[in-house]
Amino acid sequence: MPPLHETAHTEACTAIRIAVLGLGEAGSEIARDLIAAGADVRGHDPKVTPADGVDPRADEADAVRDADLVLSVNSSHDAMDALRNALPALRPGTIWADLNTASPGLKAALAEAAGAPIPVVDVALMAPVPGKGLHTPMLVAGDAADRYAAILSGFGAEVAIQPGPAGGAISRKLLRSVFYKGLAAAVVEALAAAEAAGCADWLRDNISAELAGFDQRTVDRLIDGTHQHARRRADEMTAATEQLEELGVPPRISAATRDLLLDLRDNGGR
Q1: Which CATH class is domain 173-267?
Q2: pTM for the predicted model, two decimal places
Q3: Which tens digits make up the pLDDT trace of 47-83?
Q4: Residue 55's beta-bridge partner residues?
Q5: Contact 21, 61 (CB under 8 A)
Q6: CB under 8 Å to 180, separation ≥6 — which residues?
Q7: Which of 74, 167, 250, 251 stands the most exposed, by the fewest C-beta atoms within 10 Å?
Q8: Over the stretch 171-184, which tens digit does the pLDDT of each residue have?
């Protein structure tokens, strides 16, 4: 027989009714894991049949009418419509959690549209959901961030709270994306050009060695060096852009880098 505190914890979790709006790849995996953890889940997606264990609902309003927590996992384009469609059926105090990768401005607009009776939580999923589901690390902000964290942590989720209003969590994710997705794009472009030039293996090894040595001092050197040597580096990236064009590889990242360096050279901007 489980200890009394574990029994109380389980009963508290199963008493929570969670609506999942959007049952695509991310939403379906999160719903599946919630059900496996004992949650009472209902869901709606106009294009996807709910998985086993999800109580299918006719529309957003039907899905949220008896929910304590709503997870909006549709898309940034549908996030506001989903909230507006659900608002008439939402009970005061129900937490509306937006898990979409949207701008901080949209997250703040959702909170404003919902109004005080419906606290909006801005949830930033900090890793790809496929394969992780509910265990994808989450950063949350908003008036009910602590309540959201308490509920989902009870089902095994990894939730960190970012103090402040809705928009603060996704802002940090997107700022990281500027670096990480930009780095990935630069690697893709450089290796495509290296393949055309016949030295892809050499460049791949070079990139791997450079990344392996990154630390805080490297970041400082990148920032300082870019500003101090903008003139020379602008010339270098102009030549690199020309080389990619000669190789038949569109120099999207190279050209953008050249333009940034030219701006720093000419205006001293940051």
Answers
A1: mainly alpha
A2: 0.86
A3: 999 989 999 999 999 999 999 999 999 999 999 999 9
A4: 42
A5: no
A6: none
A7: 250
A8: 999 999 999 999 99
